[in-house]
Amino acid sequence: MTSARPKRSRTDPRRRGAELEDALLRAAWDEVVEVGYADLTMESVAERAQTSRAVLYRRWPDRRELVLAAFRHRAPGSGIETPDTGSFRGDVLALLRSVARRYDQLQGMYSVIMAEYAKDSDLSTYLRDRANQSVGSAMTVILDRAAARGELAPGSLSPRVKRLPVDLLRHELLFGKAAMPIPDEFIVEITDEIFLPLVELQAGAEVAGDAEADGGTARNVVR
């Protein structure tokens, strides 16, 4: 059931600049939370914001860009941070906690996001590609720092392995019904019992191969 849209009086002052954009993005957020992305239209957002479609189109070319702008407006900032705590384990934990905070900021929208991930839509493809690129880039920086500190053997992991910790967070929220905010013990469990052993196994195999070729001995990884 669609809730009643707020109506503006003809005596209301005309909204301009930041005030107008704030109203448009709040309307887009409320609309997508209420009806979902599939049923959202530029017209429905304009109606909710008590303005015209032309006002929306002057700022955003289509509904995908409008909804993404609403995401950023609701949870401002760069999104996923690339931490530098001084240790590999600390960096992984900090990264996952940053992601968890981001999900918590998007409560109300998260069900919409996860529903879109399961669809072959323009928004789902865009969100998935952007999230995977962001997480992969952050994890690459973390792995490179760990190698420079001597905690890991130099070498690359596959993009899928780099994304694994965050993919597990998403999976738990979608299928495991994890509470929001995500419990910190779950983040520690992903890090200590799944991701770090997997990285150690892959990096260790890689080092062992190099060491055997050189006639040397492989060193331990993930200290």
From TrEMBL:
GO terms for molecular function: DNA-binding transcription factor activity; transcription cis-regulatory region binding. Pfam families: TetR_C_11, TetR_N. Residues 41-60 bind DNA. Keywords: DNA-binding, Transcription, Transcription regulation. InterPro entries: Homeodomain-like_sf, HTH-type_TetR-like_transc_reg, HTH_TetR, Tet_transcr_reg_TetR-rel_C_sf, TetR_C. Residues 18-78 form the HTH tetR-type domain. This is TetR/AcrR family transcriptional regulator. It comes from Actinomadura barringtoniae.
